[in-house]
């Protein structure tokens, strides 16, 4: 999958055993295990653990960092946040400054207190688009003096330094995973990796297959609709595309993140959905991989309420801080077979008596889904046999 192998250790987050609720649903069947959003959080069940495992206790790195961020945010002295400070929301990163959207919708370019930036280690960007902040005017210019706790965050392993986490956006209501049928070539593994990020953070996901006029999208549409996901097939340059209108209607009132591989047409789609925004667009390069036209995440208020966040296209989407069991339970089509495997801690990669492998052979699980799962386990988590 292009990213060099690396070993990550899960951190103990506030929720503890991150996969237990999903494992219960997988073991008991039921439609709830298949849904992308609103994964129910349950208390630890010792009886269940004794019945199902040696299940390793681990949690998603993003959850640990989110808890740490919120703890540190809450420790900012009240006087620092209150004295002549105004509410705002981070909406972009022009150069070394942070663009903050004020309550009257104007954008103010702010500096960040050095002490505030140093409080959180282990992340590439201490602040992210969507962060709610307090800022005030000072003699040297506007300054962010405090940041509010986040409700959630979308994050992945940083492409340049796998020891860091790159936070894509904070306080979001949905992620729109954009892929293209061609130019660049459709890569289901990218869709699956972004779905992992979304499910781990309890953020509802939508899938957009863009450039649908370049081929037949029916097979990929079938795979993801079977997972109870909204799927749209669009031609981003066509303002009269009914699928564009359907997507626009479903985004009303939400803070939605557009994410995907470089060159798939995220920014073009944003411009078609909301004419006048002016998101930067570029062409696919000679390699067919796409250029990084969008260099930093940016959000805009949109008609009808809500906001849309355009993120830079990437060529790699690293997964960090999860065990093989965590990842398997974040794949709803794999999770339903988890309790049927011979080994309760089966990684579904090499073990005998694996119900997931048997389901793949029977065609009950799409091979592309299983292949992307194995890629994460082997290449990102270095756990394959």
Strand fraction band?
A: 15-25%
Number of helices in the DSSP assignment = 13
Whole-Å distance between the termini?
A: 17 Å
Q: From N to C, what is the helix and strand string? A: HHHHEEEHEEEEEHEHEHEHEEHHHH
Domain count, please report it.
3
The CATH homologous superfamily of the largest domain is named P-loop containing nucleotide triphosphate hydrolases
The CATH topology assignment of the largest domain is Rossmann fold
Helical coverage, percent range: 25-40%
Strand order within the widest beta sheet: 10-9-8-11-13-12
Mean pLDDT metric: 80
> How would a textbook summarize the main sheet?
6 strands, mixed
Class from helix and strand fractions = alpha/beta
